[in-house]
Amino acid sequence: MLTAVEGLIAQLRQVGMPISASEGIDAVRALEHLDLLDRSEVKAGLRAALVKNAEHEYAFDTVFDLFFGLRPTSTAPSDEPGSDGGDPADPGSQDGSGNGASGSGGSGGIGFGGTGGGLSDLDDLGIRELLIGALRSQDRLLTRAIAGLLVERHANLEPGRPVAGTYYLFRTLRAVNPDLLLATLIADGATETDPLTRRLHVERSEAQVQAFRDEVAAEIRRRLVADRGAEAVARTLRTPLPEDIDFLTASQAQIATLRATIEPLTRKLASKLSRRRRHRRKGALDFRRTVRASMSTGGVPAEPIFRKPRPSKPELVVLADISGSVATFAGFTLQFVYALRQEFTTVRCFVFVDGVDEVTHIIAESRDITEATSRINHEGRGIWLDGRSDYGHALESFWDGWGRQISRRSTVVILGDARTNYHAPREQVLAAVRKQAARLFWLNPEPTSAWGSGDSVIGRYAPHCDAVFECRNVRQLKAFVEQLA
């Protein structure tokens, strides 16, 4: 058990979850107060000790299933109470003909899908009908048994192959057609006249089918662990935490996850920055009050008194490249920065491709960044000629149109990969902006190893910036904004 906990913690750290040594000790000590035969209780206890962010729960659940999953043996019990595979009193442990469903075989710790008898005698059509009945009755034991049998028949796992199991999951689910399962379950509520009841039935049906998908995925993971070990499987299943997802390579599903992450993160960060600004420093010495207070100590100023600090808020000007290659990065950064506008005197947002336009009002009027992005694209903002990146012309246009509005209180932040399509970079314009502003920073979403390659001219812009930061994910973006404010 201790070895499994150590492996669990090591893998969680590998995916980026912050787990200290003291938290690892707490997790081990928590086991003294848990029923080690109750898997759900152990999972809840370790989650409470190790997970500090709700967005990390999925990563924890996946890794926990690897190190504490049921091993595929012919006699291994299920983690359901009383589900030892041979209880004739449990209706979920028998098939429709009364045969015991727990024959021999290795189907992932529940003893189904072996050699003859029970479920293994049914064809795929019979299995599908039995599965529909199990889902309707919410029989988790029978659902798990069917998942084991389907993996045994259709996954065709290849021993020793270093894969995460996604294709095995696809091949298994294809045999029962989850869309057809869902349609069949939804049809059961077609006679409902109340819209709310009908909607609740649809959501319940979707949850039941998703639960079956999860059972199949868990079964495949258990078999992979038995074949290659938990450590090896964990490496193939390792996925980045939401704050570590790369802006430039994020899938549509990951982009949706990022959108759900950004809003609560900005609220927490705004609160943190506000507290830090209030306590960042003491105000100037209040000489008169200090002298007056020193009269009680014989004229010795034992306790200096300071005026209440009034730290100034900077003006923030953001120029974002919205060309196709970095549009996702620019969208999230604009959303992130604009959500923190109360921490700045003013926030002005500009977008550019080969031209430049101010979009402060568009972002302020839009409900979310998706709506703002759609409007910016529809109106063709930031485009001057052919819509291909031209940093030199964009910077020059910004300087001609808004350069005089930059002051010594302005902090300018430029978002982009500095890839100019081999147009003239006109870095002297950036030098003029820097001379006018208080600070100038550049956030580049590309890895530093790619800077200066091809048409990248970040090396020519960098000398005119206070700093150039790699900003590939939310974690790096958050770190930059914390020091900016």
Account of the protein in words:
The protein has 485 residues and is of the alpha/beta class. It folds into four domains: 2-67; 91-238, no CATH class; 252-280 and 312-484, 3-Layer(aba) Sandwich (Rossmann fold), CATH 3.40.50.410; 284-310, no CATH class. It is built from 19 helices and six strands. Strands 3-2-1-4-5-6 form a six-stranded mixed sheet, with helices on both faces. Helix 2 (21-30) packs antiparallel against helix 3, helix 4 (57-67) runs antiparallel to helix 10 and helix 8 runs antiparallel to helix 9 (195-228). The longest helix has 34 residues, at 195-228. It is globular. Mean pLDDT is 78; it is low at 71-117.
Give a quick precis of the structure.
The chain has 485 residues and is α/β, with parallel strands linked by helices. Helix content is 49%, strand content 7%.
Whole-number count of domains: 4
**Average predicted confidence as pLDDT:** 78
**Biggest β-sheet: strands ordered side by side in the sheet:** 3-2-1-4-5-6
How many H/I helical runs? 19
What is the fold named in CATH at topology level of the largest domain? Rossmann fold
First-to-last CA distance: 46 Å
Element-by-element helix/strand order: HHHHHHHHHHHHEHEEHHHEHEHEH
Task: State the major sheet.
Answer: 6 strands, mixed
Classified in CATH, the superfamily of the largest domain is von Willebrand factor, type A domain
Structural class: alpha/beta
Using the alpha-carbon principal axes, give the shape.
globular
Query: What percentage of the residues does DSSP assign to strands (E)?
Result: 5-15%
Q: Rg to the nearest angstrom?
A: 30 Å
